[in-house]
Task: structure prediction
Amino acid sequence: MLVALEQRLYATYSGGNKMSVARFWRKQQNRYNLIGNQCTVCGKYFYPPRGFCPVCRREGKIVEHQFKGTGKVVTFSIIRSSSGNFKLLTPYVLAIIELDEGSRLTTHLVCDIDKVYIGMPVKRVFRKLGEEGSSGAIFYGTKFVPA
Amino acid sequence: MSDIVVAAGVEKMTDVGTEVTTDVLAAAADREWEGIAGITFPGLYAMIATDYMHRYGLTREQLAQVAVKNHDNGVKNPNAQFRKAITLDTVINSTLVADPLRLFDCSPVTDGAAAVILAPLERAREFTDTPIKVLGSGQASSTIALHDRKDISTLDATVAAGNRAFKMAGIERKDIGFVEVHDCFTIAEICAIEDLGFCKKGEAGRLTEEGQTAIGGKIPVNPSGGLKACGHPVGATGIKQVYETVKQLRGDAKGRQVDTDIGMTHNVGGTGATVVCHIFGRK
Result:
C-alpha cells in the first residue's frame, strides 16, 4: 500500500523520474513559507533554496532566509492548454516574479487574466498546489496574488 | 575507440495524447520549481516572448513571419511534416496556446528519425566523393530553470556554444551561408539568430520581416522548414539539422538550395539549459 502510494507520488511530483518523494517533502517548509537562503559572503538571496552559493561556490556561506513575500512581475503568459493538476485551472497566469530581495521564481499568479502586466506588484499566499489523484494526498505551497 | 561512428536520433510522439505529450515534454524543465508552478513548454517560451516583445518592440506580425517563412521552406522539403504554405493571418488567427504564442507559433508533435555517419576525413573518401567536413563544434549549458537566467530573452548557452563553434572553425559570422536553428517556437528562432551573433539583440524581427532570413536573403535561417514545418521529433531534431546541412552543402537540396560552402546547426535542450552548435564545410 505504502509502496504503491510512494510510486504514485513519485510519478506525480517528478514526472516519473529525476526527483524522489523524500526530496519533495524535505523542501516542504521552503515551499510552504517561502524560505530560501542568503549567502553571507556576497549578500545575494536565493529561492528556490540552494545547497551552496552559485556565485561564490565553495567560498560562499549559505544561511536560511525568510523572504518578505512581496515582489513584482518580470514576465508572464496566460496558459490556455495544460495537463495534470493545472488542466482545470486554464486559462491561468504563469509568471516569473522578482522578489524584493532580488531572487526570481516561477509561479502560478492567481488573478484575473486581463489584469496582469509587467511590473505588477504581487505578494505571496499559501495555496493548494495540487493533489495526488481524486483520493490521494493534497500538497500545498506558495502562490502569488496582486499586492 | 572507433574510426567510424553512426550518430542516430529517433522519436515517436504520436502514440499518446496531447496532454501526456505536454507533460512528458515539461520534464525537460525544472520539475521541482517550474513544473509544480504549472509550466508548460509553450508557457516558458511564451514568457520569453512577453519579455522580448516588451523590451524590443517585436510585433505580432514579425513573430508570425518566422512561421510563414519556415512553412514556405517546408513546401520545398519532401521530408517535411507540413508541406503547406501559410499566411500571416493563419498564424495570427490561430488558437491561443500560451499568450502571446498561438498554435502556429509552435512546432508540432512529430514522429521521426535521422542518422549520420562520422569518419576521419581521409577514410571518408573511401565511402563517398562528397564528404562534408565538421569545421567546428561548441557545447554549452546554462540553468535548467528560466527564472535563474540573468536575461530572460538571451539563451546564454546559445551565445557560448556559438562562440566556441566559431572559434574552433576559425571563421566569421559573414562566412556562414545558412543556419538551421532550434525554432521550437517562433520566438526561439528570433532569439537564436541574435544569440548566435548574426545581428544585434532586438533586430531579428526586422531582419525576418525584410526577408533577410528567407532563402536568398542575407542569412537564410531554416531552409529545411525548421522545427516548425519540417517537424520536431525531439530526439531526432539535432541529427536532422545535420542531415539537412549535408544535403545543402552537397547541392542536393532541390528547390530550397542555398549556394554556399559553409552551414551551421543550433540545437537546444529545454529552454536553453543545453545547446550544441556545429559548423560544416564542403571543402
Q: What stands out?
A: The beta strands of chain A are 35-39, 45-46, 62-66, 70-79, 92-99, 104-109, 121-131, 138-146. DSSP finds three helices and eight strands in chain A. The two ends of chain A are 43 Å apart (CA to CA).
